[in-house]
Amino acid sequence: MDYKALSLLFLIFLVSTEARPIEDQATFANVNEIVTEHYELDIFIDFSRKVLSGTNTLYMRRTADSLDVVYLDVWDLNIYQILDQSGNKYEFHIDDPNPNLGQRLSIFIPEDLSTSETFNFTISYETSPDAQAISWLSPEQTSGKKLPYMFTQSEPILARSLAPFQDTPSIKSTYVVNTTTHVQFVTRVSGNMTYDYTDCMIRYSTFEMNIPVQSYLLAIASGNLVERKVGNRTYVITEPEEIEKVANEFSELEDFLS
Ligand SMILES: *[C@@H]1O[C@H](CO)[C@@H](O)[C@H](O)[C@H]1NC(C)=O
Ligand SMILES: *[C@@H]1O[C@H](CO)[C@@H](O)[C@H](O)[C@H]1NC(C)=O
Ligand SMILES: *[C@@H]1O[C@H](CO)[C@@H](O)[C@H](O)[C@H]1NC(C)=O
Ligand SMILES: *[C@@H]1O[C@H](CO)[C@@H](O)[C@H](O)[C@H]1NC(C)=O
Question: Keyword set for this entry (predicted)?
């Protein structure tokens, strides 16, 4: 091996062993200073305007010695106000968008709260009709042709277009999602349904995830949906017209899990 090749190899060795902090380049969140432990998303699924509107309450714990700003990931969200549980308003700022990462939402912490152990922010917001994580299908695009249909897909970094989050796999949290729709829609969310109530106009449903998971695993679907059990722990959810086919297709899901 000639000298040049050897020195090149040595250089590659140097570069590859250089100590690098393990950090997610695709988040704006200051996860080394504060972490989300739980969140409660309370949303109205507005099919007529193709938006989700409501609040996301983030239950966060400080890990740095003190804190003067909390950075969150957002993407094309309208942020209306940010309150704590006592109703105090927080000042906030949204940076210009980065075309690959969305925007940084900064929540400014008043000096007298900088050493508070926990921070719970209730953020009132609305998604954009173009939110990248959400697909809105018209009735014509569905099998039943009766109702519109929406579903989300947040991988890899699109949860921030659904709600403000520390949108990085390094943060895992439990959550509760409350959804409100017109009464004819059925909604399902990744998590156990713990409450489902309808009056003559409106359906409210509550879903709970008690296993801490990453923000990109939150999934929401709403439309003319039915559900069928295909194993002890497994269900399929789809339109009535598709349920037979889909149940057959996933009939071995329980075996795969086992
Ligand atoms: C945040 O919420 C948690 C859980 O409900 C509560 O224990 C804590 O006191 C709250 N923190 C603040 C600052 O309100
Ligand atoms: C979610 O709904 C439950 C009822 O199932 C209610 O107790 C809770 O306060 C709601 N949370 C929010 C954030 O709206
Ligand atoms: C759903 O409920 C079951 C039974 O209470 C529980 O064992 C499981 O952990 C829950 N799953 C989630 C995702 O919260
Ligand atoms: C499903 O659950 C029942 C009752 O707990 C059990 O007897 C059966 O073996 C389970 N089947 C599978 C495939 O795990």
Answer: Signal
Which residue minimizes the CA distance to atom 10 of ligand 4? 232
* Ligand 3 atom closest to the CA of 192, numbered from 1: 1
Check pocket membership of 40 for ligand 2, CB cut-off 6 A: yes
d(CA 78, CA 205): 24
Q: Which atom of ligand 2 is nearest to the CA of 178?
A: 1
The structural domains of the chain, ordered by start, are 34-224 (2.60.40.1730)
Span 9-34, pLDDT tens digits: 555 554 555 555 668 999 999 999 99
Integer Cα distance of 187 and 176 in angstroms: 14
- Protein residue closest via CA to atom 7 of ligand 4: 232
**pTM for the complete prediction?**
0.89
The residue contributing the CA closest to ligand 4 atom 3 is 232
**Do 47 and 185 touch, CB atoms closer than 8 A?**
yes
Peptide bond into 240 cis (omega under 30): no
Give the Cα separation of 206 and 198 in Å (integer): 12
* 150: Cα within 13 Å, side-chain hemisphere: 27
pLDDT band for 147, please (50, 70, 90 cuts). Answer: very high
Q: Which residue minimizes the CA distance to atom 4 of ligand 4? A: 232
Identify any residues that bridge with 60 across adjacent strands, giving them in sequence order.
36, 119
**Which is nearest to 39 in space by CA: 177, 151, 154?**
177
